[in-house]
Amino acid sequence: MAATAQVVSKPKPGMHSRRIRQSFLSRTLPFWLLLPSLLVLAVIQFYPGFYSIFLSTQDYQGGTMKYVGLQNFSKVIGSSSFTDSVWLTLMFLLGYAILTLSVSFTVALFLNRKLRLSGLYLTVIFIPWVLSDIIAGLVFRLFVVPDYGLLAPVFASPLFGSPDGISLLTTPPPSPLTEAIPFPPAPAMFLLIFAAAWKAVPFITLLILAALQTVPREVLESASIDGANGIASFRFITFPLVVPTLVVAMFNLTLGGINGVGMVFSLTNGGPGTATEVLSFLLYTLGFGQLEFGRAAALSVLMTVINLVLIALALRMSHSDSEGYKF
Known about the structure:
Elements: H1 15-55, E1 58-61, E2 64-67, H2 71-78, H3 80-111, H4 118-125, H5 127-130, H6 133-144, H7 152-155, H8 187-212, H9 217-225, H10 230-259, H11 262-267, H12 279-289, H13 293-323
Antiparallel strand pairs: 1-2
């Protein structure tokens, strides 16, 4: 029997190293594709964040820095302006979130009914969303400015509680019920809440409308056949399915309300006095108004901690909603 010779091909020199390099590139390709974005993110996000932490421990005066530890944090937390700003921020967030969610949910329910010209309605209600906070604040300021505002004569009527009416931008807040809490707020706070809600309603309406359109029609029809009326179907079917979206909307409104400063800057400028000086505007005042960069950095770090806590709560609520909702 003739023996067949088996020819064993030997790998060429350098082939093994090329295979290793190709394998390494294929495994690390996502990282190299993301590297430009990561570098940009590091420049505009990470570096300023770490520098703010460093600056919060410094006393920056006359171009020189002096390490002071946690003194800036104690000065900020111990000041009455910080305490008042916290309460004003909570009042603003409460009114802003309730008004925005209620109006957005109502508008989304109407648009979900497939009305005629619903596309036109969506286009119209999205006009506020494309405006910047500065422009929206200036528009509302022009409405109520005492001298020539379009709505100024309306609020100048004695029907608003005083013989000469009120000016939403200059009327001071009423006497507080307690010394620790600046409540009730000034009329300017209600205007700020209304303007901020007007700006946020379109986006939140879109979120809720998208959630409503994912509710299975077959389930609603089956519930109707079983004798469930519209209220029962909304309570036990529609609303539980929309709750995760409402959590996302609440999270979006809360973070935007805490960190947004453009609307306050252009509409009330923190006034009258400090009646609308929320935390974001207090940060602006410390940094750019009083040039207290160390205290401003300390306040920014505190606000970052607040944001992280809110994010953790939102994630926890979203996890709870994914496991089931009972109403």
